[in-house]
Inverse folding.
């Protein structure tokens, strides 16, 4: 095949392109600036185009689940898509778990999946698979160009699809020959539709409900938890006596000092029912009514009490921020309302390290404007309220329940916000799903401090064993939930990936290690043995 050298203008536009050039230039023109990649043979022309088309940062990930999880974290912090570069059907399948989390987190993501050349598919080579079937299972939008001349427009449409509110997963399957053959010039960016405005009737109905004397809960999700609508929600609550809630696993929320009081729903369904029992009305803003994470014998799946009426101010695809501002005006709420004070918890006394003590120390030492990512589950969920009066920060949770999301999510968040410290709260069992993210953090010198809770167990599954009323766990059952014999050595694992690490098991040592990690730049890991 002859060498291909496109003509590149000062603006990065190529005038003699192959499909890969036109794809990459279109992505850049559409505002996609980062590619989290795990490429193979079918993607080599895309890889080569990175040297010819300016404006795209390539970030190598050693597992596809790291690439897709990093794209999720990047999107949550920027509001715009990165792209992933994945290798055929098996590569896409490896990334599906964290695409599931991205979909549940309403994150805009563009996947570029290389595939066999159009004429090669009929031979059923070893890596031939139903890529469309894999992609359609998890994507909102899927397309496979049949000609290099449509690649640019397909790429522009993929970005537009990803940016449809509140955020979608778009997958472009790129046959290898459509990447190497001559193509049309790059396509211009396509404008994505803005969030739909909320009907005035919905605002009027919400205002009437909030002033009818009934006790009201307001459940929020999406950009209202970190956008301009958040303060408006706080003022509405102060004026009307409503209580603000967010989902247990919310994609992103502004938290800490200077933010309104927003209570996170409990994890267990029975606890949600008990907490909402006092309310007569539930007003949804970008959220869906709460449901149980799993089904349990003898327990409800639908978690809104029967006596609690459900009203919707804004659907997820609608402009909840504007709706909350209008609602605040409708109920004549003051523009100033009570916020969490800056009052970090005190440091615990010396002694053996516990999960509560570790999060108390994190909250006490958290730097201003940090990004906290959380997959600590049993080690963090019971104590998350300790962060409420810490320094102001953004909080990102595991949205879809597919564990192994937070190390990659932290990686993408650090790429998106290089001037902010990322503090990752992770469990040892979850971390082993995507431990390769540490290598990418080291290679890119990302400013991530990982607190690795080492309880040597899938502790949440020990709870689930009882919750689903399975038979009492014997030796065989318990062994499937245990991480001893051998125990994971997180210092050696992290250092093998290029990340400085230390192991601690006392409160004093943990506080000292965290102070040192927060004062340094670049990735660090603290194994918190609890």
């Amino acid at each position: 095949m002859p060498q291909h050298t496109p003509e590149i203008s000062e603006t990065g536009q190529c005038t003699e392109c192959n499909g890969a050039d036109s794809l990459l230039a279109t992505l850049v023109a559409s505002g996609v600036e980062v590619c989290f990649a795990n490429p193979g043979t079918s993607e080599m022309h895309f890889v080569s185009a990175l040297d010819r088309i300016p404006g795209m940062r390539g970030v190598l990930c050693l597992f596809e689940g790291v690439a897709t999880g990093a794209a999720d974290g990047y999107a949550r912090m920027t509001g715009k898509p990165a792209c992933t570069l994945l290798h055929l059907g098996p590569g896409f399948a490896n990334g599906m778990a964290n695409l599931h989390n991205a979909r549940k987190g309403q994150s805009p993501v563009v996947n570029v999946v290389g595939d066999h050349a159009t004429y090669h598919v009929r031979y059923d080579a070893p890596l031939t698979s139903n890529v469309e079937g894999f992609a359609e299972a998890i994507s909102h939008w899927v397309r496979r160009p049949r000609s290099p001349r449509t690649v640019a427009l397909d790429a522009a449409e993929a970005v537009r699809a990803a940016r449809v509110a509140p955020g979608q997963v778009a997958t472009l399957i790129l046959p290898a020959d459509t990447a190497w053959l001559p193509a049309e010039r790059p396509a211009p960016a396509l404008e994505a539709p803005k969030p739909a405005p909320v009907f005035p009737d919905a605002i009027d109905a919400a205002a009437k409900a909030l002033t009818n004397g009934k006790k009201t809960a307001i459940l929020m999700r999406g950009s209202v938890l970190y956008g301009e609508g958040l303060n408006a929600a706080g003022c509405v609550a102060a004026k009307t006596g409503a209580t603000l809630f967010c989902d247990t696993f919310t994609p992103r929320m502004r938290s800490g000092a200077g933010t309104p009081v927003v209570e996170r729903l409990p994890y267990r369904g029975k606890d949600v029912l008990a907490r909402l029992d006092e309310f007569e009305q539930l007003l949804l803003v970008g959220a869906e009514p709460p449901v149980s994470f799993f089904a349990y014998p003898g327990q409800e799946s639908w978690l809104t009490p029967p006596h609690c009426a459900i009203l919707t101010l804004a659907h997820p695809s609608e402009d909840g921020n504007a709706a909350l501002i209008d609602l605040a005006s409708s109920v004549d709420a003051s523009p100033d309302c009570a916020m969490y004070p800056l009052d970090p918890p005190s440091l615990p006394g010396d002694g053996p390290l516990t999960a509560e003590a570790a999060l108390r120390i994190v909250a006490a030492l958290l730097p201003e404007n940090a990004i906290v990512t959380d997959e600590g589950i049993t080690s963090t969920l019971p104590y998350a309220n300790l962060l409420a009066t810490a320094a102001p920060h953004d909080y990102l949770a595991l949205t879809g329940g597919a564990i192994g999301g937070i190390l990659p999510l932290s990686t993408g968040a650090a790429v998106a916000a290089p001037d902010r410290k990322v503090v990752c709260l992770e469990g040892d069992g979850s971390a082993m799903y995507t431990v390769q993210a540490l290598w990418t953090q080291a290679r890119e010198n990302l400013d991530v401090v990982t607190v690795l809770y080492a309880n040597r167990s899938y502790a949440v599954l020990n709870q689930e064993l009882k919750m689903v009323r399975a038979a009492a766990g014997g030796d065989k059952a318990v062994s499937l939930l245990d991480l001893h014999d051998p125990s994971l050595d997180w210092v050696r694992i992290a250092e093998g990936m290029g990340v400085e690490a230390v192991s601690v098991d006392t409160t004093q040592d943990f506080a000292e290690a965290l102070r040192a990690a927060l004062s340094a730049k670049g990735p660090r890991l603290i194994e918190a043995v609890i």
